[in-house]
Amino acid sequence: MSSFLASTVSIAFHGIAFAMVLYLISVGLSVTMGLMGFVNLAHGVFAAVGGYLMTTLMNRSGVPFPLALVLAVSATAAGSVVLERLLYRRFYGGNELDQVLLTMGIVFMSVAAAKFVWGPLAQPMNPPAMLSGQIDLGFRQFPLYRSFLIVCGAVVVTTLWLMLERTRFGTQIRASVDNLRMAESVGIDTSGLFTRAFALGSGLAALGGALGADVLAVNPMYALENLVYFLIVVAVGGLGSIRGPFVAALVVGITDTAFKYIWPELGAFFIYALTMALLLWRPRGLFGQTA
Amino acid sequence: MKGPSAPTDLKQRTLDAFAGRHRLSPLEALPWLVAVAAFFVFPSYLALGSQVLATILFALSVDLVLGYAGIVTLGHAAFFGVGAYTAGILAARGWGEPISGLIAAAAVAGLVGLASGALILRTSGLTLLMQTLIVATMLLELANKAGTLTGGADGLQGMDVWPLLGLFRFDMFGRTAYLYCLVVLFAGWWCARRLVYSPFGRSLTGIRENEARMHAIGAPVARRRLVVYVISAALAGVSGALIAQTTQFVALGVLALERSGSVLIMLIIGGVGHLYGAFIGVPLYMIAQDRFSQIDPVYWYFWIGLFMVLVVVFAPGGVLGLCERLVRRWRAR
Question: How far apart are CA A207 and CA B214, in angstroms?
Fold first, then answer.
């Protein structure tokens, strides 16, 4: 019985850590799809860039962990603004198929570019001494770094929620998700709002990619092989919401970890079956506003 | 004098355009002339050529659901793969007759399309996209586990495909394979063309353009979407079977997301909803892929990606969309 309890706790712990990484990366995708009506299949590229910058700064240049994190996130967010202004902007609310072609092209280019710069192997993530080892919570030990991930996820969710509910920026986002033309008519600068929301989303993705580099290994195929996970989180959670992807990420993270542990030979089968069932039950996702 | 005649003239022209819409234009012979010419001009590329022809059929099947019925799918490899495995397993278990293999593949893929379509076609947008993707991925996992039947991750070995019509062996230069694929593609294209210009096809376009209005005028929207989904699945199955029979091998990749994604990309490059996007996009993409991977075996992904971005920026709507705009501008002058 105690071994059952121990593995349940362990599954829940690792599942939640995985869920936090998934959430950080996917929430921005939910916003771009819900707010701008843009299917950004290249969203994982921002997470990969964050992960690459983070590991490179730490492993090759010896930059300390917090500074590397700040640099990786801000550089990715700044880069994403350039991409948004130059390319994405003109396809907002347009033909979905052009969006798919554009963003898949960017994914392909990023795969080759990452292989060219960093080689085909996964980049190792070495947490700083302060965050490695175990933490004793009284009844058992937990890996410190993953506990740190969970805390980070919780902090980000709370901040995002407060921002969305309490600030002017958040109000403008909610108004534009609900009714874009009405939001424009009452004087919201949606163009500037899109850029800021996009930068925020890709910055969060970079944060997820950088912090989660030891959960989702940083390798050239990153944006492609994890795309399905990000899409599942967004579809199950519902578009344009902050809370939806959080619940969806928890469901996906914990179930995936649990079934890979209990029944490894069936691998990812259960997570797909579960997603299918959830989408049949609630086609707009758990917290979806717009279809 | 000019006043009254102009509207009737316009009306007559519009009527003529509608009445003659289904007639073959001389331009439609072009792909077939090119395909036959390629047989004689590039005898050493016939293996690639038959892959291109079979993939055109696959892209055509996607065009039926995506371009005409407006069903965005990222899981059409499900039907392609089921068709490939059906033909492959038949040939590996002692029934290598190719044409009945194709028919069996179409039937099985159509059944899978019926079962999955009845379940998922009620939704749209991202949800439908995810559901199609999941159907394909679950079939991939099943094929991976059913190793005794499919060969699992090692691929299906030991296919023995009998000579076509009992007369033509599948030779090592791929001559039989190329002509076989060409004839099957022609038959598939003919069916698709008949379908698109039939009243059924028009009602599909209506559903794509305005679903609520089609409901309002009493069209059985759900059933029509399901029917076209099944037809498209069967065509995709035939395409998979063609690849299986001509390469005499089936790997798990036939069911993978990469295949659903790449066929979608090829179709978008060509142009969606024109029936001919597949004939432009598939050769462009596959020949570019072949060339780039020979020039630069490691980084060819970069050039394909760049090509895709350039197409979207300079030719949104694909090559056919670009042609349409050019023609319209030329006519307006």
Answer: 46
Tens of each residue's pLDDT in chain B, 333 residues: 444 555 677 888 888 777 777 777 777 888 888 888 888 888 778 888 899 999 999 999 999 999 888 888 889 999 999 999 999 998 888 887 888 889 999 999 999 999 999 999 888 888 888 899 999 988 998 888 887 888 777 778 877 777 777 677 777 677 888 989 999 999 999 999 999 999 999 899 898 888 889 889 988 889 999 999 999 999 999 999 999 988 888 888 888 888 898 999 899 889 888 889 999 999 999 988 888 888 877 788 888 889 889 988 888 888 888 888 888 888 887
Interface residue of B71, B72, B119, B127 to substitute, partner A, most A CBs within 10 Å: B127
Which chain A residues are closer than 8 Å to B125 by Cβ?
291
Q: How many Å apart are CA A71 and CA A107, to the nearest integer?
A: 23
Q: How far apart are CA B160 and CA B89, in angstroms?
A: 10
- Domain A2-281 in CATH 1.10.1740? The answer is no
Structural Rg of chain A based on CA atoms: 19
* Chain B residues inside the 8 Å CB shell of A105: 304-309, 311-312
Report the residue of chain B nearest A119, measured CA to CA.
B298
Binary contact (A279, B317; C-beta < 8 A): no
Looking at the complex, does the CB of residue A286 fall below 8 Å from at least one CB of chain B? no
Whether the CB of A67 is below 8 Å from some CB of chain B: the reply is no
Strands (E), chain A: 134-136, 141-143
With an 8 Å Cβ cutoff, is A2 touching chain B? no
For residue B182, give both structure tokens.
């060409």
pTM of the model: 0.88
How far apart, in whole angstroms, are the C-alpha atoms of residue B99 and residue B118?
Answer: 28
Residue A141, beta-bridge partner list? A136
Identify which of B88, B177, B83 has the alpha carbon closest to the alpha carbon of residue B136. Answer: B83
Domain borders along chain B are 27-332
Residue boundaries of the structural domains of chain A: 2-281
Other CB atoms within a 10 A radius of the CB of residue A46 amount to 31
Q: Provide the CA B3 distance to its chain's centre, in angstroms.
A: 47
List of chain B residues whose C-beta atoms are within 8 Å of the C-beta of residue A280: 119-120, 131
